[in-house]
UniProtKB/TrEMBL annotation:
RNaseP catalyzes the removal of the 5'-leader sequence from pre-tRNA to produce the mature 5'-terminus. It can also cleave other RNA substrates such as 4.5S RNA. The protein component plays an auxiliary but essential role in vivo by binding to the 5'-leader sequence and broadening the substrate specificity of the ribozyme. GO terms for molecular function: 3'-tRNA processing endoribonuclease activity; ribonuclease P activity; tRNA binding. It catalyses: Endonucleolytic cleavage of RNA, removing 5'-extranucleotides from tRNA precursor. The keyword Hydrolase applies. One of its GO terms (biological process) is tRNA 5'-leader removal. The keyword Hydrolase applies. One of its GO terms (cellular component) is ribonuclease P complex. It comes from Amnimonas aquatica. Consists of a catalytic RNA component (M1 or rnpB) and a protein subunit. Belongs to the RnpA family. This is Ribonuclease P protein component. Keywords: Endonuclease, Hydrolase, Nuclease, RNA-binding, tRNA processing.
Amino acid sequence: MTGKRYPRSLRLLTPADFKRVMDGAVFKASQGSFLLLARPSESGNSRIGFIIAKKKVRLAVDRNRIKRCVRDDFRLMNSELPAMDIVFLARQDLSVIDNMTLHDNCRDALRKLARKARQQPSQESPPQPS
């Protein structure tokens, strides 16, 4: 074990947390079978929450496998991520993806979010009046 834990403080827990991210998503990263929505975090560290509907991923064993894989990637990459709240949204056919592909796609999407978050302040800063 690497010593990196997944404590409660790294999870989106309340409906208000999810709503805040869903309504005010600033960053998006899409892979074919899932979408990551994110916004800067008010808590000072990165947190993640999952929306995996039974309609999209039928079996509970598949939903749990997907969450376990994504949590693991998030936990390992958390130190590289800027402080942001992330919602993982499952799309159709996510259950047919094997674990290795899911891990690769998830890491790519998290890197994309981190890159967008780091670039955002430089792009958004208004010019200074002279």
